[in-house]
Design goal:
CATH class of the largest domain in chain A: Mainly Alpha
Largest interface: A-B, 53 and 53 residues
Strand content of chain A: under 5%
CATH topology of the largest domain in chain A: Multidrug-efflux Transporter Regulator, Chain: A, Domain 2
Order of helices and strands of chain A: HHEEHHHH
Protein name (chains A, B): Cu(I)-responsive transcriptional regulator
Structural class of chain A: mainly alpha
Radius of gyration of chain A: 23 Å
Low-confidence stretches of chain A: none
Number of domains of chain A: 2
Subcellular location (chains A, B): Cytoplasm
Number of strands of chain A: 2
Main location (chains A, B): cytoplasm
Distance between the termini of chain A: 62 Å
CATH architecture of the largest domain in chain A: Orthogonal Bundle
Organism (chains A, B): Albimonas pacifica
Largest sheet of chain A: 2 strands, antiparallel
Keywords (chains A, B): Cytoplasm, DNA-binding, Transcription, Transcription regulation
Mean pLDDT of chain A: 97
Strand order of the largest sheet of chain A: 1-2
Oligomer: homodimer
Number of helices of chain A: 6
Helix content of chain A: 55-70%
DNA sequence: TATAAGGTTTCCAGTCGCTGGAAGGTCAAG
DNA sequence: CTTGACCTTCCAGCGACTGGAAACCTTATA
């Protein structure tokens, strides 16, 4: 398979796939013409990566997950640990965003939003 | 004021303040020794920036907000527009994270997390 | 007055995860 | 034989810092 084929299958841009090769996540074979020649297994890996990334795992976490995926002797506990750590991180981010959201919502409600210069949002940002 | 003073006042690292000068958000005066010499107004601006950044506004949004803050003829509607756009973005991010969270939570619950290789998380990532 | 400690300066490089673009090689169709 | 679509590599840039090196300046103490 050429790169555009695996790109279509995985949903990842060709550029991203080349980047993933650069950082050692996939190692496709090469044809005589120098083109990358992806196996079904490579395509599978890329789909795995696309899905993992879409769940917010970092590249390094994806590398770990991929290694676990390829290791038939893995303990499911190892996978679970990675996922749970990621969940904690997601919760942290959500909480952070919710806090911003709350503050901003209040400020926006207080602002007239007309052509007068008076603005509680700016007043808040200026900090008294 | 030296940079460590405004750093302490604003809560921003000195490095960040230098960076903000680089990109033109503040323009502190310089003493004879070449040291930056921050006025109260500079310190105020930096506090404004710190607060804006902590609410998740991008640097460019901060630049806009700062310009509005300094413009006595501003219309509060302009400020409100920026804040509302940012709120929309926050909501988008929260929704994205919540979706990840939901999927991951389900997967984590389904995983035994013992020393056996069998793992629904990996099965999901592999996509059937 | 010498010196040491600590603050400040600039500049360059790295982070993360791509993404865009240039310059060139290859392939399939007409 | 040409066109156009694909592929290759390499280099640069995004956002918002952060770390570190080398050199200069200031302040406190011996």
């Amino acid at each position: 398979m050429n790169i555009s084929d695996v790109s279509a299958r995985s949903g990842l841009p060709a550029k991203t796939i080349r980047y993933y090769e650069d950082i050692g996540l996939v190692r496709p074979a090469r044809g005589e013409n120098g083109y990358r020649d992806f196996s079904d297994r490579d395509a599978h890996k890329l789909a795995f990566l696309a899905r993992s990334r879409s769940l917010g795992f970092s590249i390094e976490e994806c590398r770990t997950l991929l290694a676990l995926y390829e290791d038939r002797e893995r303990a499911s506990a190892d996978v679970k640990r990675v996922a749970e750590a990621h969940l904690v991180e997601i919760d942290r981010k959500v909480a952070e965003l919710q806090a911003m959201r709350e503050t901003l919502t209040t400020l926006v409600h207080r602002c007239h939003g007309d052509d007068r210069p008076d603005c509680p949002i700016l007043t808040d940002l200026a900090g008294t």
